[in-house]
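Late entry, written up from scratch paper. The run itself happened at the end of the previous shift, but nothing got recorded in the book at the time, so transcribing now.
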Amino acid sequence: MRVTRMFMVAGVFGNALSGAALADGASSSVAAKGDKVPVWKGFSYKWKEHPHRFSLVASRFEGATHEMGLKIGACPEDEGQFEVPYTVLEPGALQVVRGRTAAIATSGKIEAWQSGSQKVTVNVTGLGSGSSAVVLLNGVRFRSRADDLSNSGAKCNFASAIGTWFMNVATGCPQKDCKDWDSGWHFAGARASVSEARVAAASVSFTVDVGVKPGESPDAINGGDCKCYGADWPAKRPTRYDVEVDYVVVAGEKGALKTVTFLLSGATSKATTEWRASPSKKVVGATGMASAFAGVRGFKAEVRGTKSGVSGRYVRELGLALPKFTYASRSGTGTVTGNLAFSNKSPFPEKWTVKAELHGVMVQARDSATKTKNAVVRGSVTNTSTNTVRTPLDL
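Output as recorded:
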């Protein structure tokens, strides 16, 4: 599904446009002179007690706070602990626009990638000949859409029925209402990215792409908390998500801005139930640039099962972040380290393999008035009516 959005942002750097509402729920704002702008560097989270489905995962900024959203599938109750690194950017002579897409709807079959995209044009006056710009991810929100399974025709198999009974007795979890199934699906993959910026006389254009891969699971209690769901998702019934993507556009006059892309990736060497990697890379940029910071242009993680056609897993831990970045201005060289992780650790976990990657950019600024600071926000989410928590930023 591809949707085009024209985001009209009037004014130049120095004129604030705070949270202006745009078409179809999208929004964008221009940083004012003296503002401190948070620039997202990915996320990681881990459930304290149990692994859960991929139903709600959100990490993004709301004003001077960070919003984290995590939801269990259906039960048992749990606490999700998170860590989100970010850069505090004082733009100096650079122009900065923050924005959020309207919800990108995806739909597809179980065990298949479902994708969506949205074209974005941000109009910013004052860009002269030779100006350059870079677009970075500044947060994301994945949310499974509710479905009515009461008439799906599916029936619980014996293993799922026994598993459901045992789970209800052991945890006290209530039976899920089949008419309002909002527990999502098992995780087989997720991705989000922004394209390179296309700079015109008074605008910056780019494309946002997202994807989700819900998977079938070999676990006996695959979907047993809804009696009509059974152990297998009906093959002909679509799985659906809404994905919102935050972005930040950084632009500058000729020579004010330099960018260097990099890739951090990792993969399991054999089937396992817990995996972490910390890939590191030196990024060589231009000399004579006063400061720099690292950002994320895209991420992707994909899980594959040990059985053909059954790749979905509950999620205990997921990490796709850039927690460390240092910069030597004399040589124009940065060093970046990633945090890649996945786990479905539980008393009876099913093994899997995984491949994860982070597409990043080192952004260099010539102006000495441009300042950067590395920061991180940590916290936890418990199950509430919104399943979200907002944490103040260190700006």
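The chain has one helix and 25 strands.
(Scratch paper discarded after transcription.)
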